[in-house]
Amino acid sequence: QLEETVYLEKLSVAGKMAAAIAHEIRNPLTTVRGLLQFISNDTQDEKIRNYAPLMIEEIDRTNKIITDYLMLIKPSKIEYEVVKLNQVVKDTTNLTEVLASYHAVELQYEEKGEFTIHGNSQELKQCLINLIKNAIESIEEEGFILITLQDGTKKGTVDIVIQDNGAGMTEEQLEKIGLPFYTTKSKGTGLGTMITIRLIRNMGGKVLFQSKVEEGTTVTVTLPTFKGEYDGI
Ligand code: ADP
Ligand code: MG
User: Fold this and answer.
1) Which of 17, 44, 59, 231 shows the smallest number of beta carbons within 10 Å?
2) Looking at this predicted complex, what is its ipTM?
3) What is the 134 CA–ligand 1 centroid distance (Å)?
């Protein structure tokens, strides 16, 4: 028992150190990114003009990796509040629309009712961004993503359904999804789904993946609806 206590203490020190290092790396990265953008803005130098966007992209990727790893070690927020789901899902759809159109992917949002849950809107947004990004990345050429907010199949639950017509997954891939560091992408971290599943679980919900190769993937996030004392007024 003592050994276990010592282990947990060590783990939290490691976690704190990782968070501190991530923070210390991010600051100079932000400076370099800003300077790079500044230099490349009104230059006649062809090399800089050609390579600056690539460099900025790589800096952004580094930042993304740091963010993913940070999310992994950071304990989830315990301060949950009543969240109006419609607004959160709509905001996230708007946010990811730019990325979708850049990939020639059409994004559509449908809501079938008003829903509130008990959770954290920031974490929820993060989850939805992870799932929608995966949907976008699964589409090679033109594609379509439908996001639906609707009653869950079980009473007292709500479903957020993200459906894409991308590459889909085999049975084997479906089994591995959510495992740490599982990725089929050359530039993936394999952490997004794992973090998403954990955050949704903390809010009392679950994530279901259904997929067929070359047909697409449907991800269903099911959450318990909020039944507080103010419900129904
Ligand atoms: P990453 O996006 O960094 O690869 P994720 O945890 O987000 O990590 O996803 C893990 C893997 O699951 C992806 O590399 C991909 O192979 C598969 N995957 C996830 N979502 C989808 C989807 N909508 N369609 C097809 N494959 C998917
Ligand atoms: Mg991902």
Assistant:
1) 44
2) 0.99
3) 5
